[in-house]
């Protein structure tokens, strides 16, 4: 089928190119409109969690009592008692439009000394916005933000809504910076790796097609569901990353076929029958890995799922149609006389494979121990949800939090709201007694009933500790353990409560996502390779490379290792969304490389029946593709390590580690060693499945029934 598709694309190349240009033009105009349709809020919360339930109740008649924005006014030499300080602030606060503001409290409106710093050179205004939706609150803040400015004073904006707005703005800015840094390096490396300017243009063409096509597809999805701003990051990484992988694989195989004497048409057909088949299978695994994110209820993760799966589908379709059309059009110019395929038996990776396979058990054990040790620190991880800690230390929201902790009696942004529900209204005495019991929980600093509506009551609690600390998680558990008034139930919301709910949601669903991705990858790898042993081995090896990346991330971002070099301030926690994204992207790419390598090993094994020789030949013919692809993907995602947003930096560093370890250690060293240990058992499948695969699994890809075992080979399966 894939060979036929390659032949068709070659013969209809002009129509395919014209159609692609029209689709790209349409996507560039209509698809880029998705930027105006992405959610202003981050969408980290679980809609089915107790904290989200409390938020929905507060959006009703009961109403919220929260400080969405904290506006901090500071002066180096004036105090709040000076008219030059008090006058501009009072005029600014009076001029703020009240249409989107429910409550605006300050030192002058309340007379409370808690609104003034100990040195009296700073004060703040606490603002509650009208909307109960986090996306709408961001838009409301943007409309009124300029009204808070006061001449002669430093004005900063903190609080949850200001933090979300600043994260959104910095994310788009850092995305542009990452691309500006990584793309020139990428272009240079493409020319060096492909050894041809013409060939280096292929992944860029496919990548541009995939990225713009994905934007158009994502805009279509926004017609039916909300999509987070951060989905654009996935499109950037995958669009270029997969285009590089697939173009490298296809061009390398195309050059091999031309060097073997094939015509351009025959080389394209054979390339798509082999490399095209591999692209389809590996793309299916990556798409399924991202589709697993849709199992998570938070908009942030489900958005990544839609964006990732859509990008993979578009990249695969472009690689199976546009790429063979371009290969046919460029023909032998992609394989100039100076580029010839050398004898694989004389190659460096061929020698490395045989060196590793001479002592397979010792080498396997050594690599497994090292990678396992790298993953051990991850057992001590402290999970957090994104908050102002993800921003640079100079960002307004981060500075406001630090100033509140160091200069004021309490932080107005540190509030937890308890919503009490009962069939009939609870008496004031019962509610006050319950609030007093909540106030006795360690970490709580004040609790008061601030509203009632029918059978619902609102209790507002202040707290003092870091909301991302382990102590804060215990505080939430203690609050939920306090017995509410008889016949009532209580839901808690606020940063510590939502953090606990998000962590519970991710950690409870991550195993199911991993099981889903593992099961589907098992099926796809069996269809690609005809073995039930290799899919199991692939999953186990992928866990090793992922574990090493997770352990490194814990040491770097939670414990502060290399924080000065990477330019961030460790807060003793790791974003709980991080492992989900890394599993989706890194697991998909790892399977990508596994299919690249073992598909070629299978070809050689079907031809020779020699496990060691087929493994060495397969590694020699694909190692340059795999390591080059990993290097280029590392450049693409490495640009995010320059971001000022902690979870973007975390994703960039984590993916670089995972991809490099997988390509250079697991695929290049551990796979040959384990293949030698398994021997012919690597290709084992139950007899019914083996017969089915021999009938249906060939697909013109060079796979045939394995040759009969020679006595010497069959005698040493492991």
List strands and helices in order, with pairings:
Blueprint: H1 2-11, H2 13-30, H3 50-58, E1 69-74, H4 83-95, E2 101-105, H5 107-110, E3 122-129, H6 134-144, E4 154-158, H7 160-194, H8 197-222, H9 231-259, H10 264-291, H11 299-330, H12 348-358, H13 360-375, E5 383-384, H14 396-407, E6 415-421, H15 428-439, E7 444-453, E8 456-463, H16 470-481, E9 489-493, H17 495-529, H18 533-558, H19 563-566, E10 574-575, H20 578-608, H21 611-638, H22 646-678, H23 687-696, H24 711-714
Helix pairs in contact: 1-10, 1-11, 2-8, 2-11, 6-7, 7-8, 7-21, 8-9, 8-11, 9-10, 9-11, 9-20, 9-21, 10-11, 10-17, 10-20, 12-21, 12-22, 13-18, 13-22, 16-17, 17-18, 17-20, 18-20, 18-22, 20-21, 20-22, 21-22
Family: Belongs to the resistance-nodulation-cell division (RND) (TC 2.A.6) family. MmpL subfamily.
Membrane topology: Multi-pass membrane protein
Pfam families: MMPL
Would you kindly provide a brief summary of this structure?
This is Membrane protein. The chain has 718 residues and is of the alpha+beta class.
Q: Flag low-confidence runs.
A: 699-718
* CATH structural class of the domain at 4-36 and 196-335: Mainly Alpha
CATH superfamily of the domain at 4-36 and 196-335: Multidrug efflux transporter AcrB transmembrane domain
Number of strands: 10
Work out the radius of gyration: 29 Å
- Please name the CATH architecture of the domain at 4-36 and 196-335: Up-down Bundle
Structural class: alpha+beta
Average the pLDDT over all residues and give the rounded result: 86
Report strand %.
5-15%
Helix content: 55-70%
Task: Enumerate the strands of the largest sheet in spatial order, edge to edge or round the barrel.
Answer: 2-3-1-4
